[in-house]
Amino acid sequence: MRRMIAGMSQEKLGESLGLTFQQVQKYEKGSNRIGASRLWEIARILETPITYFYEGLPVPVATDQIRDPADGMKEEKAASFVVDFLSTSEGLRLNKSFMRVRDPRVRRKIVELVRSLAGEGDDG
C-alpha cells in the first residue's frame, strides 16, 4: 500500500528494483517472500523507513506461552479487511489524506468522528 500512497506503479517499482511488475505483484499479494535486503531496497526507493513494513505486527510471544489458534485467524481477517479497504479509491484517498494530518490529537478526533458517523461505540 505504501507504493500506492507514493503514487508509484508496480512497473516503476519493478524497474527500480530490476524486476518485472509481476514479481512486485507477487510480493504485494504475499505469493513470494521478500528478503531483508530486497525489503531494505524497497523502503529506500519508496523513501520510507524500513519500520513502516513492520508496523502493527504482533509482539513475538514467548514459546512457553500458549496462544489461541483463533487469534491468528482474527489477525488474518483484520489484515484482509485493511487490504480490501485500501484497494478501493475511497479508502486510498481517505488514507492519503489522513496520513497528511501530523497532529496526533487531530488524528484521534478524526477517528472519533468516523466512529460516531459509523455508529460505533468506544469498544469498536
UniProtKB/TrEMBL annotation:
CDD domains: HTH_XRE. InterPro entries: Cro/C1-type_HTH (IPR001387), Lambda_DNA-bd_dom_sf (IPR010982). GO terms for molecular function: DNA binding. PROSITE patterns: HTH_CROC1. Signal peptide: none annotated. Residues 3-53 form the HTH cro/C1-type domain. It holds the Pfam family HTH_3. SMART domains: HTH_XRE. This is Transcriptional regulator. It comes from Candidatus Raskinella chloraquaticus.
